[in-house]
Amino acid sequence: MFYRILIFVLVLVSCSPASIYNPSIFMSQAWIENTILDCILKECYLCSLKITNKPVVSLFAGTGVAASVDGTTSTASFKTPFGLEVDTSGNIYVSDQINNLIRKIDPSGNVKTLSTNLPLQDPSGIKFDPLTGDKYVSCKDSNQIYKIDSTEQFSLFAGSSSDLSGLQNGDRLNSLFDSPFFMDIDPERNLYVGELSNHTIRKINLNSGTVSTLSGGISGYLDGDLASARFKSPLGIAYNRKMNSLLAADIQDHRIRKIDLKNSTVSTLLGNGIGADVDGNGTNASFLVPLSFL
């Protein structure tokens, strides 16, 4: 039940003095130095959970005041921190969703806003490419994916420059998305994107800049080959090197789906489709709102 722990353990804890238990407010996690970092939307915090024999939850960054103030982790403020990513130098990147900003927390605990004149709209997922040092940011409301290079310069990487939505493959700058969310990269530098409204898993080859649909496109639930499988808002995406597979958190189907990249098949790994919080093996378990992975 390893994946279930990663998804739900932070729904049961609170970083603020008063209880803020609400499954909808925990959106994205990142792993750094045996610690899970988690975004708490409602209270504008980032919290941490130390992975030890006796896990300890503590406030990591944010004052609880909804604002966009830089400073240290104890004085900085956020407004709907949503996506998290960590680079190889230990810098933490946060998509500050309602502020429409990308924030950076360095290993010394300094929080700064990455400057750009580009109109980020609802930045959601962030993914770091260890080969180049680039970061990719999905913007849900503008249906775009931006690139932040190693010098912290922003550019439009994929999607329409005029914020058009749709399902169009091909060259990255001629492609169309509809509410892209979380992302992951495989060793061949394919960037996989979970799409809320297209109900698809999209694939962007970072070497060629070509966008394709890996699977999905019709709302529903159906296992099978990549062309016939159906999803219902697959938000969370994680590449598993050992299995050479993608895991997809299929939020409205209440299931964890497995996409076998070698055999080109989709199967249900966990969940029975009932929106609940029930432990069990495989498809005997129930999930309420599976969102993201570590």
TrEMBL record:
SUPFAM superfamilies attached to this UniProt entry: NHL repeat
InterPro entries on file: 6-blade_b-propeller_TolB-like, TEN_NHL
Any Pfam family: TEN_NHL
UniProt-listed Gene3D superfamilies: TolB, C-terminal domain
Keywords, sorted A to Z: Lipoprotein
Domain named Teneurin NHL: residues: 68-171
Protein name: Putative lipoprotein
Organism: Leptospira interrogans serovar Lora str. TE 1992
